[in-house]
Amino acid sequence: MSREEPTATIAVIKIGGSIFTGPISYHRAAKFIERRLGAAPEEGLVVVVSARNGVTDSLLQEAQAILPEPGAAALDLLWSTGELHSVAILALHLQALGIAAAAFNVSQTGLILPERGFDAASAQFDSADIRGALRSHRVVIVPGFLANDPSGVTVTLGRGGSDLTAVLLAAGLGACRCELIKDVPGYFSDDPHQDAHARHLPALSFAQAVAMADAGCDLVQRQALEAAARHRLPLVVRSLDESATESWITSNPAIGEMPAAQTEM
Questions:
Q1: Which of 29, 75, 77, 129 has the most CB atoms around it within 10 Å of its CB?
Q2: Smallest Cα–Cα separation from 52: which of 78, 15, 77?
Q3: Segments of the chain with pLDDT less than 70
């Protein structure tokens, strides 16, 4: 899948499962989107969502209570209910704020994986449905972590796959940026939950981020980092707190690519 020319009117925002901890968290995410729409009236948002925190593991345990080694097709279908729940609940919270968002299922998202187990980063993307929805809605909410095979069967993209979903959609739509919303405000020299003295990293290269992933930092899925690097797609890693720090991942932040991308905010 090739990257289209950047389009300043589309941004992709992925909201991870660590953010969705309960009903209040969905409302908080909806308020974040509302503020973003107000700050950039010309911009359409594609919001990629993960299942609520802990749900994917809970669904796996539920399946294994029935069958120790559940079949991949049934398990993927069961897992998809977590993401679809997040899509619907976030859409309802936006509706309560007066924002009509298009809530998509897996097939509408447009990601096609040739077969289960295939390299997820090479999934094909048909942007027609999302582009069509953006003509009448400023927000389109899609499930992360999931794709269809050519016959329409739901397949998963691996743990952390919502990051990859966001990158593939942003590249295919020619989005001006891809924001990954986490429970920490960007990258740090160590886990800030465990080390109060961890140093924030405001900018790093894709190579640095991949090296950190190899060293055990799973903040962003490795496949997503590699895909963003191939497409030269700037990534913003941040929390929902707009006053907090953030980290930009680009091809070469030392030559000023990050500030150029920031002007799109």
A1: 29
A2: 15
A3: 1-8, 254-265
